[in-house]
Write a structure and sequence with these properties.
With about 375 residues, the protein is mainly α. The protein contains 19 helices and no strands.
């Protein structure tokens, strides 16, 4: 039973990744067709992220009422409906409307699944599960790029991914009895409810929340603006840019697969440091005045470096802040991440529109250095506490 539940969780992580890179891949075409400004993609992204902030902060309460299985199934269904709504939208305001359920469907399931895995599985499994998130995030830009190349349009790209989500929803609904039986046999730690202010005041909490904010801001800025950067600054054609935007996700996915083999041996802290070092190297290759082929390789290295950061921060949460508080802390970590995805991608959109989209790799390097500084600060605080 436990093995079958792991398979279901893997499928759920694929579903989490599928929608995340669609908007960035399609926006160069959507922008022209809908007659919108370059920075308007940030408005849709902001609405999505705002919904995830609300639902992630409520994740502990929702998970107690419904259980992780139901939360996961309902959330994936909600995102599927939202994606199909995107596929029939003919005006920008409709995209904004469908972005609301899109965001609400993501936050609670993200926090619930990540906490469950952090509590009951090793760092190796956390890496491999997030590798499967990368599988979803890698598939969708290729789906969108294929639809654009075949002349089917961006709406067919959204429709195709929406139907994939519907299929995953069916799998999750069928597995609910299995989930209940398996989860009921596992003893969960007590979870006392603390006010948000007290959670933020925990030693090291502010630092890890800021680090998570910056890292997820980097990942989502990557997803939203890589295609536009390649098209408008590097002169790459739209279809090729949509496919190459997946490079960082390919590096992310393959990196998490490899990290799974060494995660238990190296530990979360060492993996984070190694990943950040690779991210700095990859961004240097993009920033330097080198051929476009080198910059594309830099995007791959950037994604490879990102691989261990998210899963390692999440997996180390019970060790850093206690198993009893992990669900609540991870919920705030998710909310912090979504604050970053709400504010930073549209902020960069404004910088790109009013200054230059060529600032893209410099912006990403700044976020990387923030993650490095905050995570090391948190490590010192936790080490002194223990």
């Amino acid at each position: 039973m436990a093995i079958l539940l792991v398979a279901v969780i893997y499928a759920a992580f694929i579903s989490l990744g599928l929608p995340d890179s669609l908007l960035g891949s399609a926006w160069p075409v959507m922008q022209v067709e809908l007659g919108r400004a370059l920075s308007d993609a940030g408005i849709v992204s902001t609405i999505i992220s705002a919904g995830t902030i609300v639902s992630s902060l409520q994740s502990d309460r929702v998970n107690r009422k419904l259980g992780t299985g139901k939360v996961t199934a309902i959330s994936v269904l909600t995102t599927a409906v939202a994606l199909l709504g995107f596929s029939v939208s003919t005006a920008f305001w409709q995209l904004c409307l469908w972005a609301i359920p899109f965001g609400l469907g993501a936050g609670a399931v993200d926090a619930a699944l990540n906490n469950y895995v952090a509590l009951h599985y090793t760092s190796r499994h956390m890496s491999w599960l997030h590798c499967f998130w990368g599988v979803g995030a890698t598939i969708s830009p290729y789906v969108m790029g294929g639809c654009l190349t075949l002349g089917l349009g961006w709406r067919m790209g959204y429709r195709t991914v929406g139907f994939l989500q519907v299929g995953l929803t069916v799998v999750l609904l069928v597995s609910l009895p299995l989930w209940k039986k398996t989860v009921s046999s596992i003893e969960e730690p007590a979870a006392p409810s603390l006010p948000l202010a007290k959670l933020v005041a925990l030693p090291g909490a502010k630092q890890i929340f800021i680090a998570f904010l910056a890292h997820c801001a980097l990942e989502h800025t990557n997803a939203l603006w890589t295609s536009s950067y390649l098209v408008q600054y590097r002169g790459v054609d739209v279809e090729t840019a949509a496919r190459f935007a997946a490079l960082s996700y390919i590096g992310l996915t393959f990196g998490r697969f490899l990290c799974g083999f060494v995660a238990d041996k190296l530990g979360d802290r060492r993996l984070i440091r190694m990943g950040l070092s690779m991210m700095i190297l990859g961004l240097a290759l993009v920033i330097l005045p080198l051929p476009t082929e080198v910059a594309l390789a830099g995007l791959l290295i950037l994604g490879f470096g990102c691989a261990p950061i998210y899963p390692s921060i999440i997996h180390s949460t019970p060790a850093n802040f206690g198993r009893e508080l992990s669900q609540q802390v991870i919920g705030v970590e998710m909310a912090s991440a979504y604050v970053g995805t709400t504010v930073m991608p549209p902020l960069f959109g404004l910088l790109a529109q009013h200054i230059s989209i060529g600032l893209f790799p410099v912006f990403q390097l700044t976020m990387t250095l923030v993650v490095l500084g905050m995570s090391e600060w948190m490590n010192r605080i936790v080490s002194h506490r223990t």
